[in-house]
């Protein structure tokens, strides 16, 4: 075969005389030679090319949908295909601002909210809430309203009706209702409303203007009260939360009377954050 490693085999020397009298060549194949031989026999099977990626036009899929179910104004489709349809739906351009007077320069809280001022609430945020988890929906609504003000870092005066029945009676007198479900929000002496009305103000982007000029929480320390840990209440300093006091009379007798400094739960408001 002309290979360098091939040589003529003499049958007479090793295997005896050949019947045909013709010598044979013995060839040793190297790795390079074996690779060249494999190229002579190409593979019989071929892998088909992958199909092209499918292109989905989302605007064609959304065509015909009811735009009234969308909260915000839908975006206009790309201008690759000109549209000859005329907009006949008056609700197509939705607007979250339900009261256009609030967007006018120089608007005040009296343009939208009723003047109802809780005690000592002229220049602060007063929220009547509850920390009891008996009604999950009410508890989560109070947390949502509290978190909305915490996001702006404004100081709030929280009055927990579940910790002090005096706050519950105070809220009933303010709203002239027998049954009032918290939370109830008052800002600068104006009644904002419950959780639904409060979160509507947040969605309209007006909360920053509503609380403008109010005191903010101190930077650092997480804004947690050092006295009560933001619980707003402490055990009574006089009766230690027992709601009872021992009154000594002149005759030497002792009479147990109700403590006049705390509420029905033996608690007093925190003197630092209240």
Give an account of the 3D structure:
The chain is built from seven helices and eleven strands. With 274 residues, the chain is α+β, with helices and mostly antiparallel strands. Among the domains are: 7-34, no CATH class; 108-217, Glutaredoxin, CATH 3.40.30.10; 233-269, no CATH class. A hairpin with a 2-residue loop joins β6 (184-187) and β7 (190-193). α4 runs parallel beside α6 (195-203). The longest helix has 17 residues, at 136-152.
Helix content: 10-25%
State the CATH superfamily name of the domain at 108-217.
Glutaredoxin
CATH topology of the domain at 108-217: Glutaredoxin
Uncertain parts = 11-22, 69-102
Tally of contiguous helical segments? 7
Judged by helices, strands and strand pairing, the structural class is alpha+beta
CATH class of the domain at 108-217: Alpha Beta
Query: Topology as H/E string?
Result: EHEHHEEHEHEEHHEEEE
Radius of gyration: 43 Å
Mean pLDDT: 75
What is the beta-strand fraction? 15-25%
Query: Total strand count, please?
Result: 11
Give me the side-by-side strand order of the main sheet. 3-7-6-4-5
C-alpha geometry: elongated
How far is it from the N-terminal to the C-terminal residue, by CA?
A: 106 Å
User: From the 3D coordinates, which CATH architecture of the domain at 108-217 would you assign?
Assistant: 3-Layer(aba) Sandwich
Largest sheet: 5 strands, mixed
């Amino acid at each position: 075969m002309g290979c360098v490693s091939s040589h003529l085999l003499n049958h007479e020397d090793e295997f005896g005389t050949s019947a045909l009298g013709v010598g044979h060549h013995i060839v040793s194949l190297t790795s390079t030679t074996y690779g060249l031989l494999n190229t002579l026999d190409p593979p019989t099977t071929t892998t088909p090319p992958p199909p092209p990626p499918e292109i989905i036009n989302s605007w064609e899929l959304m065509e015909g949908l009811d735009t009234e179910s969308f909260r915000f104004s839908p975006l206009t489709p790309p201008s690759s295909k000109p549209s000859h349809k005329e907009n006949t739906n008056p609700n197509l351009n939705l607007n979250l601002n339900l009261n256009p007077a609030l967007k006018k320069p120089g608007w005040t809280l009296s343009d939208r909210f009723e003047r109802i001022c809780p005690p000592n609430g002229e220049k602060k945020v007063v929220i009547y809430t509850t920390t009891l988890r008996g009604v999950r929906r009410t508890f989560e609504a109070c947390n949502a309203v509290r978190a909305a003000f915490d996001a702006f870092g404004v100081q709030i005066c929280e009055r927990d009706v579940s910790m002090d029945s005096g706050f519950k009676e105070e809220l009933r007198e303010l709203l002239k209702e027998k049954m009032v479900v918290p939370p109830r929000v008052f800002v600068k002496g104006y009644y904002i409303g419950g959780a639904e009305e409060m979160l509507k103000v947040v969605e309209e982007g007006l909360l920053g203007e509503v609380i403008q000029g109010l005191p903010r929480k101190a930077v650092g320390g997480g804004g947690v009260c050092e006295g009560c840990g933001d619980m707003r209440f402490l055990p009574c300093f006089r009766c230690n939360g027992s709601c009872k006091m021992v009154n000594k009379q002149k005759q030497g007798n002792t009479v147990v009377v109700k403590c006049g400094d705390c509420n029905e739960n033996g608690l007093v408001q925190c003197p630092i954050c209240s």
